[in-house]
Write a structure and sequence with these properties.
Length: 418
C-alpha cells in the first residue's frame, strides 16, 4: 500500500459569532481536508486546521510522503519533521503554547488518520479495531455552550440566537439537549466578568439538576480569581478547565479548589507532562489528536495518563465530520477517557464534507461508525462547494481578536485579565 498521491484541499464553512477569551469567531471557519491515495486505488481521509501557515506545511509534507507505505508512520513522522522547520503558532492561542514538536504533531496527525483509514478499509475493520478495539459502542459528547451574539454584525440572526446572560445560556443548553440529547454541559467562559459566568453556572445547575457541568475561561483569570470562583462553585462543577495560565499557576489553583482542574492549554505536548504531573497542576487532560500527533500517539498519551492518575476528556475546535469520526474512533478505544468529549458539531449546523448518515447523535453520544476505516465517505460536491467558499471568503487564518477589534477597537485577548 504505497502512497501514490495526496490531495490537500482547504475549505471554509459558516461559523456563528461565538465569543471567547481571544475575541469572537469570524463568519467562516477554515479546515484542511487531506485525501491519501495508494497505488492499489484505496483512499483515506484526514482533517486538520486551515490557517495558511499550517496549510503550507501540510502541502509541503504531502509531497514528501509520496512513495511511502501507509504503515511506515515512523518514517512519515521523520519526513514531516524535516519539512516543518519552524514553530507554527495560532493567533488565538486557545490551545496553548506552540512548540516545534507540537507543530510537527499537528501536521503529522492529518496524514496518520488518513493512513489508518486506508489500513482499516484494506483490512475491512473500523479504525477503533486498529487502536485496540472498542471499549464503548458510542462516545458521549457534551453540549458545548458559548456566549454569542444573535448573528454576525450586519447579518440576519442565526437559529441559535443571542446568549449574553445566564438566561440566554440556559436557553441555549435546552436547545442543544433537546436536539442532541447531551448529558453533560460545558460553558466557554473568559468572556464576561467572572461573577457573571459563575451566575451562569449556577443557573445551569438549577435548570439541569445533576447534569455534569464544566466552565472553561481559557486562562482569562488570575490565580486569586480562579481560587475564589472555584470555591464559590463547590459541588457544581465536574471540572474547571484552564481557569488561569501555565502549569505553576494551575498548580496553585488546584491546591486550593475543591474540584478537579482540566486543561487543553498548559499541557499540550509531551514536554509539559512531567512538570504538570510533578506539580499536581491538572487532574483531567483534554486529548486532541489534531495536535497530539494523531490517533496512535494520542492513545500512548492516554496510557501515560492512566499510569500517572490523570483522567481524560477531549478538546474540540470548529471541525467537520472526518474529525468527528476520528475523535469517535479514538475515544471508543480509550478505556480511561471517562468524561464526555467536546465537539463543535452543533455549531456547524449540518454543513459537512462527508456523506450524511454515518455519523449521528443518539442520546448525546455518537455510535462508532459501522463501515471499515473511519466509516465516512467524502462528499465531493460538498467539498467543491466548501473549497470555493474558502477561495472567496477572504479569510486565510483564524483571527478571533482581529475580528472583535472591528467592533471594539480597544479589545485585547484576555489572559490572567480578571
Ligand atoms: O479551550 C478550549 O476548549 C478551546 O480552545 C476550544 C475552542 O477553540 C473554542 O474555545 C473556540 O473555538 O472558541
Ligand atoms: Mg479548553
Amino acid at each position: 500500500m504505497i502512497i501514490r498521491r495526496i490531495e490537500v484541499t482547504p475549505v471554509a464553512f459558516r461559523d456563528p459569532p461565538l465569543l471567547n477569551a481571544a475575541g469572537v469567531h469570524e463568519p467562516w471557519a477554515l479546515r484542511t481536508i487531506v485525501e491519501v491515495v495508494t497505488d492499489e486505488g484505496l483512499s483515506g481521509l484526514g482533517e486538520t486546521y486551515g490557517d495558511l501557515e499550517h496549510l503550507t506545511k501540510v502541502r509541503d509534507s504531502a509531497e514528501a510522503l509520496v512513495g511511502l507505505d501507509v504503515h511506515a508512520t515512523n518514517e512519515m513522522y521523520a519526513r514531516i519533521a524535516s519539512v516543518v522547520g519552524d514553530v507554527v503558532s495560532d493567533l488565538h492561542g486557545l490551545t496553548g503554547m506552540a512548540t516545534r514538536e507540537k507543530s510537527v504533531d499537528r501536521v503529522f496527525a492529518a496524514f496518520e488518520v488518513a493512513c489508518l483509514d486506508i489500513r482499516g478499509r484494506a483490512a475491512g475493520v473500523p479504525v477503533t479495531d486498529l487502536l485496540g478495539g472498542r471499549v464503548r459502542d458510542a462516545v458521549p459528547y457534551s453540549a458545548y455552550l458559548f456566549y454569542k451574539w444573535a448573528g454576525h454584525p450586519g447579518a440576519e440572526p442565526d437559529r441559535f440566537g443571542e446568549a449574553l446572560d445566564p438566561a440566554g445560556v440556559v436557553a441555549q443548553a435546552a436547545l442543544m439537549i433537546k436536539e442532541y440529547g447531551f448529558a453533560s454541559i460545558k460553558l466557554k467562559g473568559g468572556v464576561f466578568q467572572p461573577e457573571q459566568e459563575i451566575e451562569a453556572i449556577k443557573a445551569l445547575h438549577e435548570a439541569f439538576p445533576g447534569m455534569p457541568l464544566r466552565l472553561d475561561p481559557n486562562a482569562a483569570w488570575t490565580v486569586e480569581t480562579s481560587v475564589r470562583a472555584g470555591r464559590e462553585l463547590a459541588g457544581k462543577l465536574e471540572y474547571l478547565e484552564d481557569p488561569t495560565p501555565d502549569i505553576p499557576g494551575m498548580a496553585r489553583v488546584a491546591a486550593q479548589v475543591p474540584m478537579p482542574l482540566a486543561t487543553n492549554m498548559c499541557v499540550v505536548t509531551r514536554e509539559h507532562l512531567p512538570p504538570a504531573i510533578a506539580q499536581h497542576a491538572v487532574q483531567v487532560l483534554l486529548l486532541d489528536h489534531h495536535y497530539w500527533g494523531g490517533l496512535v500517539r494520542s492513545a500512548h498519551v492516554a496510557s501515560l495518563c492512566a499510569t500517572f492518575g490523570l483522567e481524560l476528556s477531549m478538546h474540540s475546535n470548529s471541525h467537520l465530520g472526518i474529525s468527528l469520526a476520528a475523535m469517535t474512533h479514538l475515544a471508543a478505544a480509550t478505556p480511561n477517557l471517562t468524561h464526555a468529549c467536546d465537539t463543535h458539531t452543533p455549531w456547524q449546523n449540518g454543513q459537512d464534507v462527508v456523506v450524511p448518515g454515518s455519523l449521528r447523535f443518539v442520546d448525546g453520544a455518537v455510535p462508532v461508525p459501522a463501515g471499515p476505516g473511519l466509516g465516512v465517505e467524502l462528499d465531493r460536491d460538498a467539498l467543491a462547494v466548501m473549497h470555493e467558499q474558502y477561495l472567496t471568503c477572504g479569510i486565510v487564518r483564524r483571527d478571533d481578536a482581529g475580528y472583535m477589534r472591528r467592533f471594539d477597537s480597544a479589545f485585547t485577548a484576555r489572559r490572567a485579565f480578571w
